[in-house]
Amino acid sequence: MSPDKNSSVDHSVIFEKAKNVANLHLESPRGIMDNDKRQLETAIGIGSPEGLFKLTPEATMVMIENSAEELAKGFSSAKFLELARFLIGKPSSNVDGSWSNQPLLDALDKVEKGDLAGIQELEGLYEKSKHRDEDEYTGDSRINSQVLIVAKTVAGQIGAAQALREIARASSYGSMGQNIGTAANRKILEMALRA
Predict the structure, then answer these.
(1) How far, in Å, CA of 109 to CA of 3, rounded?
(2) Which residue, 52, 56, 109, 179, is most buried by CB atoms nearer than 10 A?
(3) Would the pLDDT of 173 be above 60?
(4) CB pairs under 8 A, 24+ apart, for 152-155?
């Protein structure tokens, strides 16, 4: 993957995929429901990417799953790293210092520089966040998994389209509500379609 060059995403292909997704309607295994369908039809009617940035979380995820090959053309390594840093957010920590997101940022920096030890560190952070007890916050496992996917993509271990699908799916799982997932998946669409 090129670290700094993007291919152009063909918006007409994306809108054709949107029509396909809208037509899935209730038959979709991902559960496209009436509201999702209406929002997709509105976005198609608008005819510009702006409409796609306002889709329901479910419709956004299914859009990414169905158009990942085309969306991936808008993602260089640099853009994947930008997405990961967006997901991590600004450096922060618990009041008592028991958790910080700085190790995520540090590990990602290593991967960017070609040090694959960063991937092992991210794997460790992800595993820790999956098995936390109620008294110890060790990070959001969805975000940690998404950052790990980005790292493996930048290192050439995962293809760009597969990575976008996995990141989109990871957004929909977990117990912290849908704000994280919505933000992540809308960011993917925005980064690809505003390339």
Answers:
(1) 14
(2) 52
(3) no
(4) 152/119, 153/1, 153/77, 153/80, 154/1, 154/77, 154/80, 154/81, 154/111, 154/112, 155/111, 155/116, 155/119
